[in-house]
Amino acid sequence: MTMASIRTIAFWAAALLFSSCSQQQVESEPEVYSFQVPANFPQPVFDTHNPMSHQGIELGRKLFYDVRLSANNKVSCASCHQPQLAFTDGMQLSKAGVSGTALLRHAPAIFNLAWVNNGLFWDGGSTNLESQVFGPLTAHDEMAQNLYELVDELNAVPAFVSAFQNAFQEPVSSQNVAKALAQFQRSLVSAGSKYDRYRLNQTGGALTSDELAGLMLVRQKCQGCHTGELFTDQGYHNNGIDADFSNTEHEGLYTGRYRISYDLADLGKFKTPSLRNVALTAPYMHDGRFTSLEDVLDHYSAAVKPSATLDARLPASGLNLSAQEKKQIILFLHTLTDLGFTQNPDHHKPQNF
């Protein structure tokens, strides 16, 4: 064998080795994401065929902030879910959607969704994050996107084609758009508030006497529904903001959980939001009718409207809170603000993508 032949063989061997390594790098398994459960939180239950990976979460973050997900390429998920507001938008009823029409429900906060195991949306109309994605993505007044066109748009961006391969070892698809967005949202854990430092006996966790009094009041008056370290029971309750649920317009959106269950006992029941970061997520209730925490406490104190499905833990006459008690509750609720969560750069819009 001549030296030229040896050099030729060596060249092609090296080329094949490089090609094999490159192929292996592209097709390597996604890096498994180790979900860290906060010390004072319960264990989440992942009932999903969508294991989290670093690549999947990062792809989901990019998609969350990308306006290509909307029909007019002007609306992203972040248009209604802004990280500095605990992924709410500060609006009563958003008009940020493609149609410019005010939505009929207030944009809920997005955090600690890894623990949600009893439905999403205000009425529990979606069973998991993966299916939930398709609601706003295709709704006429929200993102109004055609899923086939979305796949074409993403396929036109080489960085997205590579990102889907790295995250799922599959081409771009609407199913994997949903999976990636779900992984990103499931990774959004808020557990670093002053209250958490208090619970874990950490530096900076000392509560004032008024904050402690507020904590006791919340435990006595509110934790029938806003329970545990998550400050929500993930359930559905009629909290007395309305007494008449006969309005069946807009596919029964005003009837609450009944819209999904068709059980008359569910009329006027809406999902319990977490009290975590509540000082950042005004306005309040499923329709954003209360502009401040003071308004919320005024309602629970003396403006409860009795009805057949009013939650049994809520007196029809209200909680009769004193001005001092309202002040203490609000002071405590501010200790549930997690600025480390809202300011985390890993939750914000990626740069240079």
UniProtKB/TrEMBL annotation:
It holds the Pfam family CCP_MauG. The gene is ccp_4. Residues 1-24 form the signal peptide. Its main location: periplasm. Residues 209-337 form the Cytochrome c domain. Keywords: Heme, Iron, Metal-binding, Oxidoreductase, Periplasm, Peroxidase, Signal. It is found in: Periplasm. SUPFAM superfamilies: Cytochrome c. Its EC number is 1.11.1.5. One of its GO terms (molecular function) is cytochrome-c peroxidase activity. This is Cytochrome c551 peroxidase.
